[in-house]
Specification:
This protein has 565 residues and is α/β, with parallel strands linked by helices. It contains 17 helices and 24 strands. α1 packs across α6. The longest helix has 18 residues. The protein is globular. The protein binds zinc ion. The site of zinc ion (ZN) has 4 residues, from loops.
């Protein structure tokens, strides 16, 4: 785009609550200098390059408020792993594994992603089952979401997991034992960190290629900023590489980095390490403002912290650290001015963070930092209004809201009890309570790149019907009352995300004075068939006033003569 441009005849949804719609925007250099009605545009703009958008919808650039870019590349970067996504029973899992072993008998070890935990139903998978298939080489079966793994005896031995091993965090990160107290081979959550790095170090070249592949995909879908919610291993290597990339102009996206607490010990060194990262690795596009804690697990692995017990096992899950330790961490962050992002799936985990925040306000007068609670799959009624009251942000991943990671209604009720099973992902109640709500992709694999698509998130958050189960023909994932409006979703992907990342003076809305990050669509998100939303690819995406992506073959009226594209 030339230095100064006037975009006219557009349908601009600004995400600015005071003036949500406009038809004209003036861009000077990298910033919007006017957004509003064409009649009131500054007189000098009539000499600017004029682009008539023919009534097309314009949106602010999206912010993905919880992603895992580098982690996804690493999870993908192992040639000893193979995906078996669609197994539906233990027999099928073991059969596919056997077939693979026969085909590749000389691989050093095997890591398989086998899909949902539900595939096992009530059948236990043990190291004895795996030993029957492979005895002399290590085998690791990893469930798709990487919260549970099953190891054969050889893998247990290789990772030095002996019978006297201590759990990292009981109920959350632990080694399963049978009735007689012996290890079964099943391990959960962060106890599997050593095996995720088992394949050795990923090369810089592979890491960079993977990161650029994700960034490129996100940009084509209108995402111009991400918060990376953590790289479980090779964290410093990743930041070093990203910094080098940005310094040489190769990082095309704004990247909010983090320090991740994924073992209890890391809570003790987090602030010191965070400050070190910040001093070494900040650039124009990379900022450190937030520490992340993996505070609980997932419902399917029974590791998410609940208030009322799981219906099937009677357990209540667990947390990475105790509530008292969390309080000390949050107090330290509050003093240091470092924001917190916490993985909290179960209602018990979010309640603990809310209680700590309340205590800080009571005892220290003020919660100065931004606190985000991510995932929030179950929520107690009484905790929903507390987010607004305490100024805490709620983060959801709307492409899950069709229930793709959950089983059937019966399975969910068996796991969580009927009420909770019918009240998962209550983002609309949270939004309507006045809390700041943000949205994100939260993927951990390159193999399902389409799940990173914010337009899939918008469709599923709006319809609560899962695309892979038939989209419009799929059943609504209850409750229907939690369907979000398109406006809710756009705000959660734009201005609300900017607010929590302290970028709201720069991005998040189409507003005079802000960076010209925006996209042009050829579909009207507000009126179109909602079951086609996932197919949207913006015609053009701009970052800092510069067109970074445009769809092949499109021509905007007036655009060609201005050499915009
Ligand atoms: Zn995550």
């Amino acid at each position: 785009m030339k230095e100064n441009t006037i975009i006219r005849n557009a349908r601009i949804y600004t995400s600015n609550e005071e003036a949500p719609w406009a038809d004209t925007a003036v861009i000077e250099g990298d910033k919007f200098t006017y957004v509003g009605n064409e009649n009131n545009a500054p007189a000098e703009a009539k000499d600017f390059c004029s682009v008539d958008l023919g009534g097309r919808l314009v949106l602010p650039g999206f912010i993905d408020s919880h992603t895992h870019m580098a982690l996804s590349v690493m999870m993908d970067g192992d040639e000893n792993s193979f995906p078996i996504w669609d197994c539906r029973s233990k027999t099928e899992i073991l059969r596919k594994l056997t077939e693979y072993m026969k085909k590749h008998p000389f691989r050093l070890y095997y890591v398989a992603f086998f899909g949902q935990v539900e595939a096992l139903a009530d059948e236990k998978l043990t190291k004895a089952d795996l030993d029957q298939i492979v005895k002399y080489r290590p085998v690791v079966l990893l469930e798709k979401e990487c919260h549970t793994a099953w190891l054969n005896s050889k893998a247990m031995k290789m990772l030095k997991i002996r019978e006297d091993v201590k759990d990292m965090a009981p109920g959350y990160s632990y080694y399963e034992r049978d009735a007689s107290g012996n290890l079964t081979g099943k391990i959960t959550e962060m106890t599997m960190l050593p095996l995720l790095g088992m394949s050795g170090r990923i090369s810089d070249k592979k890491l960079k290629t993977g990161i650029l592949k994700i960034a490129d995909y996100l940009l084509t879908r209108g995402v111009t900023t991400v918060y990376d919610a953590g790289c479980y291993f090779e964290e410093e290597k990743t930041y070093k590489l990203l910094t080098e990339m940005d310094r040489s102009g190769e990082l095309p996206i704004r990247y909010e980095a983090t320090y991740i607490i994924n073992t209890p010990e890391k809570a003790d060194i987090a602030v010191k390490e965070f400050k070190r990262y910040k001093s070494l690795y900040e650039t124009d596009n990379i900022k450190f403002k937030t520490i992340k804690i993996m505070f609980d697990g997932t419902h399917r692995a029974h590791t998410a912290k609940l208030v009322e017990p799981y219906h099937d096992t009677g357990g209540t899950g667990g947390t990475m650290v105790s509530e008292e330790r969390l309080y000390r961490l949050m107090s330290e962050l509050n003093r240091e001015g470092i924001d917190l992002h916490a993985h909290t799936v179960g209602e018990g985990a979010s309640k603990m963070v809310l209680d700590c925040a309340e205590r800080i306000i009571r005892e220290q007068g003020e919660l100065k930092i931004h606190v985000t609670l991510a995932h929030l799959e179950t929520q107690r009624d009484e905790d929903i209004p507390r987010f607004r009251e305490l100024g805490i942000t709620a983060n959801f991943t709307p492409h899950w809201h069709g229930g793709n990671d959950y089983g059937t209604a019966e399975q969910n009720a068996e796991l969580l009890g009927t009420w909770r099973a019918e009240h998962l992902f209550r983002a609309k109640s949270m939004m309507d309570s006045g809390a700041n709500v943000t949205f994100s992709s939260d993927e951990v694999t390159l193999q399902l790149l389409d799940r990173w698509n914010p337009f899939l998130g918008i469709e599923t958050g709006h319809t609560r019907r899962e695309l892979t189960k038939g989209g419009r023909n799929a059943a609504v994932f209850p409750p229907l009352s939690e369907c979000l409006t398109i406006e809710d979703l756009i705000k959660g992907y734009t201005v609300n995300g900017a607010r929590v990342l302290r970028l709201d003076d720069q991005i998040g809305s189409v507003e005079a004075g802000k960076s010209a990050d925006f996209m042009v669509l050829n579909e009207d998100l507000f009126t179109m068939d909602p079951y086609r939303i996932h197919d949207i690819v913006p015609e053009a995406v701009f970052v800092r006033g510069k067109c970074v992506k445009y769809r092949e073959g499109i021509s905007f009226p007036g655009a060609v003569s201005c050499r915009v594209f």
